[in-house]
Known about the structure:
Layout: H1 5-23, E1 42-45, H2 48-58, E2 64-66, H3 81-89, E3 90-95, H4 105-114, E4 117-120, H5 154-171, H6 176-202, E5 210-213, H7 219-224, E6 228-232, H8 243-255, E7 260-262, H9 270-279, E8 282-284, H10 301-316
Helix pairs in contact: 1-3, 1-4, 2-5, 2-6, 5-6, 6-10, 8-9
Residues 75, 149, 215, 217, 290 line the site of zinc ion.
Amino acid sequence: MILDSRTRAAALLSCAAFFLCACGGSGSRQTATVSSATVDGGVVATTSVLGALVRSVAGGAVPVDTLVPVGSSPETYEPAPQDVVRLSHARLVVLNGAGLEVWLEKLLRAAASQQASILVLSDGIVVSPSSLPAAAGRSQSARAFLNPHLWLDPIYAQAYVRRIQTALVRQFPAQARVINQNTAAELARLQQLHRWIQAQIATVPPSKRAMLTFHDAWYYFDKRYGIRDLGAIESSPGKEPSAAEFAALVDRAKANHVRAIFAEPEFSRKLADQLAASAGTKTVIDLYDDSLGTEPGMDSYEGMMHHDVSAIVAGLKI
Length: 318
Ligand SMILES: [Zn+2]
């Protein structure tokens, strides 16, 4: 059945109202307004980082909008009714999957049944469970244990770009030539980025290549570049460690001579600072991973990664 746009939007808003009520969250609701980028028949990506990859492929040929605002965490985001309006206009919805957007997956799939095609970028990639030792015995579903942060490995980002290319060409065949040219250029930039990261990490003595982070964003990056991943302060989004878990983190940091505790600006730095103080190390609190930054040069995937890798290498060399 094909619904007109007004009927489609009403159906989705009804679905959103149910979804938002069912969530019943008491935390602060991030406000997302419908931006001027909301255009009939465009692409909606869930996060700013995925949106940047989609824009690099789409160029100016296809309008691209994003849902989670820059500076917000996609793992704790609560969708607003306006998000459904955006989805109701989309021809293609791009999400990461692997448990990142549990707040919206059901909604996105409902939207897809109405109009939009859905591209789940992690589909077809073997996703690792969370590597966090503190994850053992957690009561959430097994799906919540997956580590969704594949995009922070530029090789997986290349796989994402290829999948975006295929989906965009399928949805916008008239723009195929531009999309294919953009894809080739983006894949080359990502390969160049990969080589640069390899060279940067090579400047860090192997004994210092270990990361302990606020949340488990850097697992795939660490695996790709030979960095020991020592887990994270939060064992799942929004869950602070118990006293015993915190003590174990301090012991782990000391035993591995961790050079710095890495965190993101969208989260409180309190726990990272406490862990660094207890372990006798420093805190690096300006890593961007789930969201782009607002500073100059941070509005692209490559810009974000250049900043982060520079901060990581400097932190590991402390
Ligand atoms: Zn994350």
